[in-house]
Amino acid sequence: MKVWILRHGEAQNRARTDAERELTDNGREEVLNSAAHLLGQPLRWIIASPYVRAQQTAELVRQALGFADAVVTVPWLTPESDPRKALSNLDLYASDDVLIVSHQPLVGSLIGLAVHGHLQTAEPMHTASLAELDADFPLAGAMELVRVRHPG
């Protein structure tokens, strides 16, 4: 199983609510640059936070890759979601290659949990940073961080 974790692109500083913040033009560009690293990968699922900036990021990636299936929106990928719950929910996709599109602090904590088995060592993730993890199963401490690509 391969799991790619993508933090959304740069978003507006302000909106009516945090969940409604949209990508900036620079954020769209960052996302497309990160999406280029996913070309040719055998993704089966794109799973995203319901927040607007994550949905926009996931849709840009979906279009850039020519991915036929719809983005799967889940409530357990918001910024303050529990990384343990997110990792546990990945069990549903354990036989497939997955792209997760979400936010800090969740993405950094999720990577730290998957690789180190605890929440004390979060991975720094900039906007549109893309992490690649590899494992037989999505278990805490059982995944290998293959690489992290930061935009720019």
From TrEMBL:
Classification via InterPro entries: His_Pase_superF_clade-1, His_PPase_superfam, SixA
Annotated Gene Ontology cellular component terms: cytoplasm
A GO term for molecular function: protein histidine phosphatase activity
Pfam families attached to this UniProt entry: His_Phos_1
Gene3D superfamilies in UniProt: Phosphoglycerate mutase-like
Identification of the protein by name: Phosphohistidine phosphatase, SixA
Lineage, top ranks: Bacteria, Pseudomonadati, Pseudomonadota, Gammaproteobacteria, Pseudomonadales
